[in-house]
Amino acid sequence: MLEPGIEEKTFVLNLGPQHPSTHGVLRILLEMDGEYIAKADPVIGYGHRGHEHMAENRNYLQFLPNMGRVDYLHALAYNQCWCMAVEKLLGITVPERAEFIRVITNELNRITSHLLWFGAYLMDLGAFTPFLYCFDDREHILDLLDRVTGSRLTYCYYRFGGVPSDIDREFIDGCFAFIDRFRSRWKDYDNLVTKNVIFINRTKGVGIITPEMALKYGITGPNLRGSGIPYDIRKSEPYSAYPLFNFEIPIGENGDIFDRYVVRLAEMEQSLRIVEQALVKLPNGPIMAEKVPKRIKPPAGEVYQAVETARGEFGIYIVSQGEVKPYRVKLRVPSFATLSFFPEMAKDNLVADAVANLGSIDVVIPEIDR
Amino acid sequence: MIIPLLKGLATTLKACFSKPITLQYPEVKRPVAPRFRGHPELVINDDGDRRCVACTLCMVVCPSNAIRGIEAAEGENHEKYPVAFTIDLTRCIFCGFCQEACPKAAIKLNNLYELAQYDKSRLILDIDKATQEKSQLRMADWL
Ligand code: SF4
Ligand code: SF4
User: Fold this and answer.
1) Residue B102 CB less than 6 A away from ligand 2
2) What is the value of pTM for the model shown?
3) Domain count, chain A
4) Which tens digit of pLDDT belongs to each residue from A291-307?
5) A349-358 pLDDT, tens digit each
6) Is residue B20 part of a domain?
7) Which of A7, A41, A137, A354 is 20 to 30 A from A247 in CA distance terms?
8) Whose C-alpha lies nearest to ligand 2, atom 2?
9) Model ipTM value
10) DSSP letter at A320?
Protein backbone atom coordinates (compact mmCIF):
# COMPACT_ATOMS: atom_id res chain seq x y z
CA MET A 1 0.00 0.00 0.00
CA LEU A 2 1.32 3.34 -0.93
CA GLU A 3 0.92 6.40 1.17
CA PRO A 4 -0.85 9.25 -0.57
CA GLY A 5 1.45 11.64 -2.34
CA ILE A 6 4.08 9.04 -3.17
CA GLU A 7 4.31 8.26 -6.83
CA GLU A 8 3.89 4.63 -7.74
CA LYS A 9 7.03 3.36 -9.39
CA THR A 10 8.38 -0.01 -10.28
CA PHE A 11 11.86 -0.93 -11.40
CA VAL A 12 13.24 -3.78 -13.41
CA LEU A 13 15.59 -6.32 -11.92
CA ASN A 14 17.47 -8.72 -14.11
CA LEU A 15 17.86 -12.27 -12.81
CA GLY A 16 20.23 -14.36 -14.86
CA PRO A 17 21.12 -15.54 -17.49
CA GLN A 18 24.14 -16.58 -15.45
CA HIS A 19 22.70 -17.12 -12.03
CA PRO A 20 23.32 -20.13 -9.84
CA SER A 21 19.68 -20.66 -8.98
CA THR A 22 18.28 -20.54 -12.48
CA HIS A 23 19.95 -23.92 -13.13
CA GLY A 24 21.04 -23.15 -16.63
CA VAL A 25 20.98 -20.13 -18.82
CA LEU A 26 17.61 -18.62 -18.07
CA ARG A 27 17.02 -14.92 -17.77
CA ILE A 28 14.11 -13.54 -15.86
CA LEU A 29 13.13 -9.92 -16.03
CA LEU A 30 11.51 -9.04 -12.75
CA GLU A 31 9.45 -5.91 -12.50
CA MET A 32 9.78 -5.03 -8.88
CA ASP A 33 7.44 -3.09 -6.68
CA GLY A 34 9.69 -2.52 -3.73
CA GLU A 35 10.61 -5.94 -2.54
CA TYR A 36 7.68 -7.60 -4.24
CA ILE A 37 7.55 -8.88 -7.77
CA ALA A 38 4.92 -7.15 -9.87
CA LYS A 39 5.67 -9.08 -13.01
CA ALA A 40 8.10 -11.81 -13.96
CA ASP A 41 9.04 -12.37 -17.54
CA PRO A 42 11.22 -15.37 -18.37
CA VAL A 43 13.44 -14.91 -21.40
CA ILE A 44 14.40 -18.23 -22.90
CA GLY A 45 16.49 -19.36 -25.82
CA TYR A 46 20.07 -18.99 -24.56
CA GLY A 47 20.65 -22.70 -24.85
CA HIS A 48 18.94 -23.16 -28.18
CA ARG A 49 20.63 -25.81 -30.27
CA GLY A 50 17.92 -26.48 -32.82
CA HIS A 51 17.33 -30.14 -32.04
CA GLU A 52 14.09 -30.26 -33.98
CA HIS A 53 15.73 -28.89 -37.07
CA MET A 54 18.73 -31.17 -36.65
CA ALA A 55 16.35 -34.12 -36.76
CA GLU A 56 15.32 -33.13 -40.26
CA ASN A 57 18.92 -33.21 -41.44
CA ARG A 58 20.08 -36.59 -40.24
CA ASN A 59 18.76 -40.08 -40.30
CA TYR A 60 16.85 -41.73 -37.50
CA LEU A 61 19.85 -43.36 -35.85
CA GLN A 62 22.00 -40.29 -36.07
CA PHE A 63 19.45 -38.27 -34.15
CA LEU A 64 19.57 -40.66 -31.21
CA PRO A 65 22.56 -39.06 -29.44
CA ASN A 66 20.71 -35.74 -29.54
CA MET A 67 18.08 -37.14 -27.22
CA GLY A 68 20.62 -37.48 -24.45
CA ARG A 69 21.27 -33.79 -24.74
CA VAL A 70 17.76 -32.41 -24.69
CA ASP A 71 17.45 -33.09 -20.99
CA TYR A 72 20.79 -34.31 -19.77
CA LEU A 73 19.52 -35.20 -16.31
CA HIS A 74 17.10 -37.90 -17.35
CA ALA A 75 18.63 -38.74 -20.69
CA LEU A 76 17.58 -42.37 -20.81
CA ALA A 77 13.87 -41.58 -20.79
CA TYR A 78 14.42 -39.35 -23.81
CA ASN A 79 16.45 -42.07 -25.50
CA GLN A 80 13.64 -44.46 -24.82
CA CYS A 81 10.99 -42.13 -26.15
CA TRP A 82 12.79 -41.67 -29.45
CA CYS A 83 13.43 -45.39 -29.78
CA MET A 84 9.82 -46.22 -28.99
CA ALA A 85 8.51 -43.67 -31.45
CA VAL A 86 10.67 -45.04 -34.26
CA GLU A 87 9.84 -48.62 -33.29
CA LYS A 88 6.18 -47.71 -33.50
CA LEU A 89 6.72 -46.35 -37.00
CA LEU A 90 8.63 -49.44 -38.05
CA GLY A 91 6.31 -51.84 -36.27
CA ILE A 92 9.07 -53.55 -34.27
CA THR A 93 8.33 -55.36 -31.03
CA VAL A 94 11.06 -55.17 -28.45
CA PRO A 95 12.02 -58.42 -26.66
CA GLU A 96 11.00 -58.62 -23.05
CA ARG A 97 14.49 -58.71 -21.61
CA ALA A 98 15.37 -55.53 -23.43
CA GLU A 99 12.24 -53.85 -22.06
CA PHE A 100 13.25 -54.88 -18.56
CA ILE A 101 16.75 -53.53 -19.01
CA ARG A 102 15.27 -50.31 -20.31
CA VAL A 103 13.02 -49.99 -17.30
CA ILE A 104 15.82 -50.71 -14.83
CA THR A 105 18.27 -48.22 -16.29
CA ASN A 106 15.53 -45.69 -16.80
CA GLU A 107 14.38 -45.78 -13.20
CA LEU A 108 17.94 -45.56 -11.93
CA ASN A 109 18.35 -42.53 -14.11
CA ARG A 110 15.16 -41.03 -12.69
CA ILE A 111 16.63 -41.37 -9.21
CA THR A 112 19.80 -39.55 -10.25
CA SER A 113 17.69 -36.77 -11.66
CA HIS A 114 15.62 -36.39 -8.51
CA LEU A 115 18.73 -36.60 -6.36
CA LEU A 116 20.39 -33.84 -8.30
CA TRP A 117 17.29 -31.72 -7.94
CA PHE A 118 17.18 -32.46 -4.25
CA GLY A 119 20.77 -31.45 -3.67
CA ALA A 120 20.78 -28.43 -5.91
CA TYR A 121 17.46 -27.17 -4.63
CA LEU A 122 18.50 -27.32 -1.01
CA MET A 123 21.62 -25.47 -1.99
CA ASP A 124 19.32 -22.76 -3.38
CA LEU A 125 17.68 -22.60 -0.01
CA GLY A 126 21.04 -22.29 1.66
CA ALA A 127 21.62 -25.81 2.92
CA PHE A 128 24.92 -27.15 1.71
CA THR A 129 25.25 -30.49 3.47
CA PRO A 130 22.40 -32.44 1.80
CA PHE A 131 24.00 -31.68 -1.54
CA LEU A 132 27.06 -33.72 -0.58
CA TYR A 133 24.96 -36.63 0.59
CA CYS A 134 22.93 -36.64 -2.61
CA PHE A 135 25.94 -36.52 -4.82
CA ASP A 136 27.51 -39.37 -2.93
CA ASP A 137 24.43 -41.49 -3.60
CA ARG A 138 24.15 -40.26 -7.15
CA GLU A 139 27.73 -41.23 -7.80
CA HIS A 140 26.90 -44.84 -7.01
CA ILE A 141 24.18 -44.89 -9.65
CA LEU A 142 26.41 -43.16 -12.17
CA ASP A 143 29.00 -45.89 -11.67
CA LEU A 144 26.34 -48.53 -12.24
CA LEU A 145 25.05 -46.80 -15.34
CA ASP A 146 28.59 -46.25 -16.58
CA ARG A 147 29.01 -49.98 -16.43
CA VAL A 148 26.07 -50.74 -18.72
CA THR A 149 25.73 -47.68 -20.91
CA GLY A 150 29.33 -46.56 -21.25
CA SER A 151 28.85 -42.98 -20.20
CA ARG A 152 28.00 -41.08 -17.11
CA LEU A 153 25.77 -38.28 -18.27
CA THR A 154 24.78 -38.00 -21.90
CA TYR A 155 23.63 -41.56 -22.34
CA CYS A 156 23.02 -43.03 -25.73
CA TYR A 157 22.22 -46.57 -24.83
CA TYR A 158 18.99 -47.87 -26.33
CA ARG A 159 18.77 -48.79 -29.97
CA PHE A 160 15.80 -49.39 -32.24
CA GLY A 161 14.60 -52.87 -31.37
CA GLY A 162 16.24 -53.27 -27.99
CA VAL A 163 19.50 -52.49 -26.26
CA PRO A 164 22.96 -53.01 -27.79
CA SER A 165 24.61 -54.71 -24.84
CA ASP A 166 23.41 -56.84 -22.00
CA ILE A 167 23.68 -56.25 -18.27
CA ASP A 168 25.93 -58.49 -16.24
CA ARG A 169 25.95 -60.09 -12.81
CA GLU A 170 28.08 -57.36 -11.32
CA PHE A 171 25.57 -54.73 -12.36
CA ILE A 172 22.70 -56.68 -10.86
CA ASP A 173 24.55 -57.20 -7.57
CA GLY A 174 25.54 -53.55 -7.61
CA CYS A 175 21.90 -52.54 -8.03
CA PHE A 176 20.77 -54.61 -5.06
CA ALA A 177 23.60 -53.21 -2.97
CA PHE A 178 22.62 -49.72 -4.00
CA ILE A 179 18.96 -50.27 -3.17
CA ASP A 180 19.86 -51.40 0.35
CA ARG A 181 22.26 -48.57 0.82
CA PHE A 182 19.84 -45.96 -0.46
CA ARG A 183 17.01 -47.21 1.72
CA SER A 184 19.26 -46.91 4.74
CA ARG A 185 19.82 -43.28 3.82
CA TRP A 186 16.19 -42.20 4.11
CA LYS A 187 16.66 -41.64 7.83
CA ASP A 188 19.56 -39.29 7.21
CA TYR A 189 17.56 -37.37 4.64
CA ASP A 190 14.62 -37.12 7.00
CA ASN A 191 16.78 -35.89 9.82
CA LEU A 192 18.67 -33.48 7.66
CA VAL A 193 15.87 -32.03 5.61
CA THR A 194 12.34 -33.33 5.86
CA LYS A 195 12.03 -32.80 9.59
CA ASN A 196 14.11 -29.66 9.64
CA VAL A 197 11.90 -26.86 10.96
CA ILE A 198 13.68 -24.21 8.97
CA PHE A 199 13.04 -26.12 5.77
CA ILE A 200 9.42 -26.77 6.70
CA ASN A 201 8.73 -23.15 7.50
CA ARG A 202 10.44 -22.06 4.34
CA THR A 203 8.48 -24.34 2.04
CA LYS A 204 5.05 -25.05 3.51
CA GLY A 205 2.38 -22.91 1.92
CA VAL A 206 4.85 -21.24 -0.45
CA GLY A 207 4.69 -21.45 -4.24
CA ILE A 208 1.30 -23.11 -4.42
CA ILE A 209 0.20 -24.60 -7.73
CA THR A 210 -3.53 -25.21 -7.55
CA PRO A 211 -4.89 -28.23 -9.44
CA GLU A 212 -6.92 -25.95 -11.73
CA MET A 213 -3.87 -23.89 -12.62
CA ALA A 214 -1.77 -26.97 -13.16
CA LEU A 215 -4.32 -28.34 -15.62
CA LYS A 216 -4.72 -25.02 -17.34
CA TYR A 217 -1.01 -24.70 -18.00
CA GLY A 218 -0.48 -28.34 -18.89
CA ILE A 219 1.94 -28.95 -16.06
CA THR A 220 2.91 -32.59 -15.70
CA GLY A 221 5.18 -34.71 -13.60
CA PRO A 222 5.90 -34.28 -9.90
CA ASN A 223 4.71 -30.68 -10.08
CA LEU A 224 1.25 -31.83 -11.07
CA ARG A 225 1.22 -34.73 -8.66
CA GLY A 226 2.24 -32.39 -5.86
CA SER A 227 -1.09 -30.66 -6.44
CA GLY A 228 -2.94 -33.91 -5.87
CA ILE A 229 -3.65 -35.09 -9.39
CA PRO A 230 -2.44 -38.67 -9.86
CA TYR A 231 -1.40 -38.45 -13.49
CA ASP A 232 1.57 -40.49 -14.56
CA ILE A 233 2.08 -41.76 -18.08
CA ARG A 234 3.57 -44.96 -16.70
CA LYS A 235 0.12 -45.72 -15.31
CA SER A 236 -2.31 -43.86 -17.52
CA GLU A 237 -0.83 -44.87 -20.87
CA PRO A 238 1.40 -47.77 -19.85
CA TYR A 239 4.37 -48.37 -22.09
CA SER A 240 7.39 -50.65 -22.10
CA ALA A 241 7.29 -53.16 -19.23
CA TYR A 242 5.73 -50.84 -16.66
CA PRO A 243 2.35 -52.62 -16.44
CA LEU A 244 4.17 -55.67 -15.06
CA PHE A 245 5.31 -53.93 -11.90
CA ASN A 246 3.58 -52.79 -8.75
CA PHE A 247 4.19 -49.22 -7.89
CA GLU A 248 2.20 -46.29 -6.63
CA ILE A 249 1.88 -42.74 -7.76
CA PRO A 250 2.69 -40.55 -4.80
CA ILE A 251 0.60 -37.39 -4.63
CA GLY A 252 0.60 -34.28 -2.48
CA GLU A 253 -2.27 -32.29 -1.04
CA ASN A 254 -1.62 -28.59 -1.14
CA GLY A 255 0.58 -28.20 -4.18
CA ASP A 256 3.17 -26.21 -2.26
CA ILE A 257 6.92 -26.61 -2.40
CA PHE A 258 6.94 -29.03 0.49
CA ASP A 259 4.44 -31.32 -1.23
CA ARG A 260 6.46 -31.36 -4.42
CA TYR A 261 9.51 -32.21 -2.36
CA VAL A 262 7.71 -35.07 -0.64
CA VAL A 263 6.36 -36.36 -3.95
CA ARG A 264 9.83 -36.48 -5.46
CA LEU A 265 11.26 -38.27 -2.48
CA ALA A 266 8.44 -40.79 -2.54
CA GLU A 267 8.97 -41.27 -6.26
CA MET A 268 12.56 -42.26 -5.69
CA GLU A 269 11.33 -44.97 -3.35
CA GLN A 270 8.83 -46.13 -6.00
CA SER A 271 11.62 -46.22 -8.57
CA LEU A 272 13.62 -48.40 -6.22
CA ARG A 273 10.64 -50.72 -5.99
CA ILE A 274 10.38 -50.95 -9.75
CA VAL A 275 14.11 -51.66 -10.12
CA GLU A 276 13.93 -54.31 -7.44
CA GLN A 277 10.98 -56.08 -9.04
CA ALA A 278 12.49 -55.87 -12.49
CA LEU A 279 15.79 -57.34 -11.35
CA VAL A 280 14.03 -60.21 -9.64
CA LYS A 281 11.74 -60.93 -12.57
CA LEU A 282 14.36 -60.31 -15.27
CA PRO A 283 13.59 -62.82 -18.04
CA ASN A 284 16.20 -64.49 -20.20
CA GLY A 285 16.17 -64.12 -23.92
CA PRO A 286 17.40 -61.89 -26.69
CA ILE A 287 18.07 -58.21 -26.08
CA MET A 288 17.53 -57.13 -29.65
CA ALA A 289 14.54 -57.68 -31.92
CA GLU A 290 15.25 -59.91 -34.86
CA LYS A 291 13.85 -57.97 -37.74
CA VAL A 292 15.52 -54.63 -37.40
CA PRO A 293 16.49 -53.36 -40.83
CA LYS A 294 20.07 -52.16 -41.22
CA ARG A 295 18.84 -49.09 -42.96
CA ILE A 296 16.09 -47.45 -40.98
CA LYS A 297 13.53 -46.24 -43.48
CA PRO A 298 10.09 -46.19 -41.90
CA PRO A 299 6.96 -46.05 -44.04
CA ALA A 300 5.18 -42.74 -44.42
CA GLY A 301 3.06 -41.90 -41.43
CA GLU A 302 2.81 -39.99 -38.23
CA VAL A 303 3.41 -41.13 -34.71
CA TYR A 304 3.22 -39.68 -31.23
CA GLN A 305 4.90 -41.28 -28.28
CA ALA A 306 4.95 -39.97 -24.73
CA VAL A 307 6.97 -41.10 -21.75
CA GLU A 308 7.08 -40.04 -18.14
CA THR A 309 10.38 -38.36 -17.41
CA ALA A 310 11.55 -37.01 -14.09
CA ARG A 311 10.02 -33.69 -15.10
CA GLY A 312 6.75 -34.83 -16.58
CA GLU A 313 5.31 -35.83 -19.89
CA PHE A 314 7.78 -35.79 -22.72
CA GLY A 315 6.34 -36.46 -26.14
CA ILE A 316 7.79 -36.94 -29.58
CA TYR A 317 5.78 -36.41 -32.70
CA ILE A 318 7.35 -37.68 -35.90
CA VAL A 319 6.12 -37.11 -39.40
CA SER A 320 7.71 -39.57 -41.77
CA GLN A 321 7.46 -39.43 -45.53
CA GLY A 322 9.11 -42.76 -46.10
CA GLU A 323 12.59 -41.26 -46.33
CA VAL A 324 15.71 -42.10 -44.37
CA LYS A 325 15.32 -38.79 -42.59
CA PRO A 326 12.25 -37.67 -40.68
CA TYR A 327 10.24 -34.96 -42.36
CA ARG A 328 9.44 -33.18 -39.12
CA VAL A 329 10.04 -33.90 -35.47
CA LYS A 330 8.31 -32.06 -32.69
CA LEU A 331 9.45 -32.42 -29.12
CA ARG A 332 6.92 -31.71 -26.39
CA VAL A 333 8.97 -30.89 -23.32
CA PRO A 334 7.52 -30.79 -19.81
CA SER A 335 9.68 -27.95 -18.48
CA PHE A 336 8.26 -25.49 -20.97
CA ALA A 337 4.76 -25.84 -19.58
CA THR A 338 6.07 -25.62 -16.06
CA LEU A 339 8.09 -22.52 -16.70
CA SER A 340 5.16 -20.76 -18.34
CA PHE A 341 3.41 -21.02 -15.02
CA PHE A 342 6.29 -19.36 -13.23
CA PRO A 343 5.22 -15.71 -13.80
CA GLU A 344 1.91 -16.43 -12.12
CA MET A 345 3.66 -18.17 -9.28
CA ALA A 346 6.16 -15.41 -8.70
CA LYS A 347 3.67 -12.56 -8.83
CA ASP A 348 3.31 -10.60 -5.58
CA ASN A 349 6.01 -12.65 -3.93
CA LEU A 350 9.44 -11.78 -2.62
CA VAL A 351 12.52 -12.24 -4.78
CA ALA A 352 13.85 -14.75 -2.28
CA ASP A 353 10.68 -16.77 -2.74
CA ALA A 354 10.97 -16.51 -6.51
CA VAL A 355 14.28 -18.32 -6.29
CA ALA A 356 12.76 -20.93 -4.02
CA ASN A 357 9.81 -21.32 -6.42
CA LEU A 358 11.93 -21.57 -9.49
CA GLY A 359 14.05 -24.29 -7.97
CA SER A 360 11.05 -26.20 -6.73
CA ILE A 361 9.51 -26.70 -10.16
CA ASP A 362 12.69 -28.42 -11.35
CA VAL A 363 13.03 -27.02 -14.83
CA VAL A 364 15.95 -27.93 -17.06
CA ILE A 365 16.61 -24.93 -19.23
CA PRO A 366 18.32 -26.62 -22.23
CA GLU A 367 15.22 -28.75 -22.47
CA ILE A 368 13.04 -25.68 -22.80
CA ASP A 369 15.30 -24.13 -25.41
CA ARG A 370 16.03 -27.45 -27.15
CA MET B 1 11.91 -26.62 17.53
CA ILE B 2 15.50 -27.29 18.46
CA ILE B 3 15.36 -31.08 18.54
CA PRO B 4 14.96 -31.65 14.79
CA LEU B 5 17.87 -29.29 14.20
CA LEU B 6 20.05 -31.19 16.65
CA LYS B 7 19.13 -34.43 14.90
CA GLY B 8 20.25 -32.93 11.64
CA LEU B 9 23.49 -31.83 13.24
CA ALA B 10 24.03 -35.30 14.62
CA THR B 11 23.63 -36.70 11.10
CA THR B 12 26.23 -34.29 9.82
CA LEU B 13 28.62 -35.02 12.66
CA LYS B 14 28.29 -38.72 12.02
CA ALA B 15 30.12 -38.13 8.76
CA CYS B 16 33.18 -36.97 10.74
CA PHE B 17 33.69 -40.48 11.99
CA SER B 18 33.17 -42.36 8.76
CA LYS B 19 35.73 -42.98 6.07
CA PRO B 20 36.05 -40.09 3.64
CA ILE B 21 34.64 -40.85 0.23
CA THR B 22 36.55 -38.11 -1.53
CA LEU B 23 38.83 -39.18 -4.33
CA GLN B 24 42.11 -37.23 -4.47
CA TYR B 25 41.79 -36.43 -8.15
CA PRO B 26 44.10 -35.88 -10.11
CA GLU B 27 46.62 -37.78 -8.00
CA VAL B 28 44.19 -40.68 -7.81
CA LYS B 29 42.25 -41.29 -10.98
CA ARG B 30 38.79 -42.69 -11.08
CA PRO B 31 38.73 -46.01 -12.88
CA VAL B 32 36.15 -46.19 -15.62
CA ALA B 33 34.01 -49.11 -16.68
CA PRO B 34 35.27 -51.28 -19.56
CA ARG B 35 32.42 -50.01 -21.72
CA PHE B 36 33.30 -46.40 -21.06
CA ARG B 37 33.38 -44.38 -24.24
CA GLY B 38 36.47 -42.23 -24.50
CA HIS B 39 37.70 -40.97 -27.82
CA PRO B 40 37.72 -43.13 -30.96
CA GLU B 41 41.03 -44.46 -32.20
CA LEU B 42 42.23 -46.91 -34.86
CA VAL B 43 43.04 -50.39 -33.64
CA ILE B 44 46.22 -52.16 -34.74
CA ASN B 45 46.82 -55.86 -35.22
CA ASP B 46 49.48 -57.84 -33.48
CA ASP B 47 51.76 -57.35 -36.46
CA GLY B 48 51.43 -53.60 -36.20
CA ASP B 49 49.09 -52.94 -39.12
CA ARG B 50 45.89 -51.03 -38.82
CA ARG B 51 42.85 -53.23 -39.10
CA CYS B 52 40.97 -50.61 -41.06
CA VAL B 53 40.04 -51.44 -44.66
CA ALA B 54 38.92 -47.91 -45.53
CA CYS B 55 35.31 -48.87 -46.18
CA THR B 56 34.05 -45.49 -44.87
CA LEU B 57 31.12 -47.03 -43.01
CA CYS B 58 32.15 -45.21 -39.84
CA MET B 59 32.28 -41.94 -41.73
CA VAL B 60 28.77 -42.48 -43.04
CA VAL B 61 27.26 -43.34 -39.67
CA CYS B 62 28.92 -40.58 -37.67
CA PRO B 63 26.19 -38.16 -36.58
CA SER B 64 28.49 -35.17 -36.27
CA ASN B 65 30.84 -35.64 -39.22
CA ALA B 66 33.78 -36.14 -36.92
CA ILE B 67 35.38 -38.70 -39.22
CA ARG B 68 36.45 -37.42 -42.59
CA GLY B 69 39.06 -37.60 -45.25
CA ILE B 70 39.38 -41.37 -45.54
CA GLU B 71 41.62 -42.16 -48.48
CA ALA B 72 42.18 -45.74 -49.52
CA ALA B 73 45.19 -47.34 -51.15
CA GLU B 74 45.47 -50.86 -52.51
CA GLY B 75 48.13 -53.35 -51.48
CA GLU B 76 49.71 -56.16 -53.51
CA ASN B 77 46.94 -58.66 -52.89
CA HIS B 78 44.24 -56.10 -53.60
CA GLU B 79 43.67 -55.51 -49.93
CA LYS B 80 42.67 -51.98 -49.11
CA TYR B 81 44.12 -49.88 -46.37
CA PRO B 82 43.75 -46.22 -45.45
CA VAL B 83 46.44 -43.68 -46.17
CA ALA B 84 44.54 -40.77 -44.73
CA PHE B 85 42.01 -40.75 -41.95
CA THR B 86 40.97 -37.82 -39.82
CA ILE B 87 39.13 -38.00 -36.53
CA ASP B 88 38.10 -34.56 -35.43
CA LEU B 89 37.66 -34.70 -31.67
CA THR B 90 36.37 -31.15 -31.58
CA ARG B 91 33.28 -32.51 -33.32
CA CYS B 92 33.07 -35.99 -31.86
CA ILE B 93 30.25 -36.56 -29.40
CA PHE B 94 31.57 -39.92 -28.16
CA CYS B 95 28.46 -41.80 -29.17
CA GLY B 96 30.26 -44.96 -30.21
CA PHE B 97 28.33 -45.45 -33.44
CA CYS B 98 31.55 -45.73 -35.45
CA GLN B 99 32.66 -48.62 -33.27
CA GLU B 100 29.32 -50.36 -33.81
CA ALA B 101 29.30 -49.78 -37.55
CA CYS B 102 32.82 -50.98 -38.29
CA PRO B 103 32.80 -54.45 -39.84
CA LYS B 104 36.46 -55.06 -38.95
CA ALA B 105 36.43 -53.81 -35.35
CA ALA B 106 39.06 -51.39 -36.55
CA ILE B 107 37.88 -48.31 -34.73
CA LYS B 108 37.35 -48.38 -31.02
CA LEU B 109 36.51 -45.95 -28.30
CA ASN B 110 39.22 -46.04 -25.66
CA ASN B 111 38.86 -45.16 -22.01
CA LEU B 112 40.58 -41.78 -21.88
CA TYR B 113 38.63 -38.96 -20.36
CA GLU B 114 41.11 -36.16 -19.84
CA LEU B 115 40.93 -34.71 -23.30
CA ALA B 116 41.16 -31.00 -22.64
CA GLN B 117 43.85 -29.22 -24.62
CA TYR B 118 45.24 -25.73 -24.77
CA ASP B 119 45.60 -25.99 -28.48
CA LYS B 120 42.51 -27.02 -30.40
CA SER B 121 44.49 -28.38 -33.33
CA ARG B 122 45.83 -31.14 -31.12
CA LEU B 123 42.31 -32.54 -31.06
CA ILE B 124 42.21 -33.06 -34.78
CA LEU B 125 43.82 -36.46 -35.17
CA ASP B 126 45.30 -37.51 -38.46
CA ILE B 127 45.87 -41.15 -39.27
CA ASP B 128 49.07 -41.40 -37.24
CA LYS B 129 47.79 -39.68 -34.18
CA ALA B 130 44.55 -41.60 -34.30
CA THR B 131 46.34 -44.91 -34.22
CA GLN B 132 46.16 -46.65 -30.92
CA GLU B 133 49.70 -46.59 -29.66
CA LYS B 134 50.73 -43.32 -31.16
CA SER B 135 47.87 -41.35 -29.66
CA GLN B 136 49.37 -38.20 -28.24
CA LEU B 137 46.35 -37.76 -26.00
CA ARG B 138 47.48 -40.75 -24.03
CA MET B 139 49.70 -38.59 -21.94
CA ALA B 140 52.14 -39.98 -19.50
CA ASP B 141 50.79 -39.36 -16.05
CA TRP B 142 51.59 -35.77 -15.59
CA LEU B 143 51.85 -35.75 -11.88
S1 SF4 C 1 32.08 -41.62 -31.49
FE2 SF4 C 1 30.30 -40.92 -32.65
S3 SF4 C 1 30.75 -38.77 -33.09
FE4 SF4 C 1 32.69 -39.71 -32.47
S5 SF4 C 1 33.64 -40.32 -34.37
FE6 SF4 C 1 32.49 -42.09 -33.64
S7 SF4 C 1 30.49 -41.93 -34.64
FE8 SF4 C 1 31.49 -39.94 -34.85
S1 SF4 D 1 37.49 -47.87 -39.28
FE2 SF4 D 1 36.18 -49.61 -39.80
S3 SF4 D 1 34.31 -48.64 -40.61
FE4 SF4 D 1 35.87 -47.07 -40.61
S5 SF4 D 1 36.75 -47.15 -42.65
FE6 SF4 D 1 38.04 -48.47 -41.36
S7 SF4 D 1 37.16 -50.51 -41.57
FE8 SF4 D 1 35.62 -49.07 -42.38
Assistant:
1) yes
2) 0.85
3) 1
4) 777 777 888 888 888 88
5) 777 777 778 8
6) no
7) A137
8) B102
9) 0.78
10) E
